């Protein structure tokens, strides 16, 4: 295609400059151009939450965002939340509470949980369930995910 | 407003070589511009007869991904600073820039203080990730029959400020929403801001919504404002301004004026009056049945939720004392 545009952004702390077609979705840009396949794609219309990641610290659906729209922004994918030997608090709690089975929904759950913890007090279990209601999980039945977020909340708040 | 193009312009799926990999592009190809000023945006819109505005993209992107729309030019207005921000206007009103994000509206102290009904309604809009990007202007322009913002605009008699090739014009909310996903906006126009005039000082509100899953579009929603009028000191106070808005029960949000008139002038609201008003609401609305709920079920929701919301607003109004 002829109408390529140059975008420059920060992905997981590294500066990235690429030529993209305007119609390229952020999710496909990350997966196909940058090989960051931790961002999962389910429904492609904003319903399932699997593709959720952080843009300038805010949770965002990467299937409802064009790569070109985040020109200049800072994108954080699940690859940068932590490593097996140095997990983020939320990751650690997902592991301890068995907050995942197949793991398909997990990257989106982690990004959503990070943003929820930043923006809301999440006092009750109901608050957590409501906050996670835009992320679908077909395996766990949610209880362990809710427990994991509650445990992360307790740990973060006690620090 | 142009009807959605239902057929893609090109073949359904285009496989393209990007570097050495094959990438499936979901939306059909378009040009993209990101103007910095309103004037530039208007010029770009005028330059193509198949241009589309993108703000937060939270309603437009699904339509592009499914190729229900295939614009030639996407005009990204998201970085036009003059369209941003929530400002006080005289008479305790607020003006909200079209690019204000849902999350900003949800957390604004000004909104919470002056229009608690909007503050409460915002809790029901989608999910955090969508509220982080979706804009007030986008929600109003998209005009989903079950969206909260259009309902708030109709409830609060908002004015929509629209910029076009011939300058600015104002439209009353009740004239702006013409049908499901259809507004008074021309294709070459941009919604700039929405202005909510201040409410009478002694007023109370209530809001309720029913959806199948938290954050989903509503099956039915009711919002009510009741205000006192008359002299508190001489005991002549009665209900003055009454607003009753529903959404999810028609193609656009609706005000039920016959029900409003039944309450206006009343000194007291008791259960029989509530029932009477709720019956009028139930018999006035014209809901459609769909996959999620039958028309009868929506009428039933409207009936019970109207009674509840009116009761709550009345209780709150009674709590307002002379000193308020
Ligand atoms: C899973 C999901 C759940 C949702 N749930 C809800 C919900 O419960 N309640 C609710 O209200 N909404 C809901 N939404 C929709 C959401 O609120 C959208 O953000 C909003 O409707 C559109 O705002 P936007 O800025 O993203 O607009 P965009 O998607 O960018 O644009 C939408 C339309 O408006 C036009 N437009 C945008 N800005 C302007 C402007 N300034 N002037 C003229 N035209 C303009 C565009 O051309 C396009 O046609 C949901 C969305 C999703 C994906
Ligand atoms: S793939 Fe983005 S929300 Fe489902
Ligand atoms: S763990 Fe399998 S979808 Fe959530």
Helix content of chain B: 25-40%
Largest sheet of chain B at a glance? 5 strands, antiparallel
Radius of gyration of chain A: 16 Å
Oligomer: heterodimer
Kindly report the CATH topology of the largest domain in chain A. Ubiquitin-like (UB roll)
Order of helices and strands of chain B: EEEHEHEEEHHHHHHEEHEEEEEEEHHH
Structural category of chain A: alpha+beta
Q: What is the CATH topology assignment of the largest domain in chain B? A: Enolase-like, domain 1
Largest sheet data of chain A: 5 strands, mixed
**Uncertain runs of chain B:** 1-21
Morphology of chain B: globular
Contiguous helical run count of chain A: 5
| Unreliable stretches covering 5 or more consecutive residues of chain A | none
Q: Give the beta-strand count of chain B.
A: 16
Strand content of chain A: 15-25%
Reading the helices and strands of chain A in chain order gives EEHEEEHHHH
End-to-end Cα distance of chain B, whole Å, is 45 Å
Number of helices of chain B: 12
Counting structural domains of chain A, the number is 2
Give the class of chain B from helix and strand content and strand pairing. alpha+beta
CATH class division of the largest domain in chain B: Alpha Beta
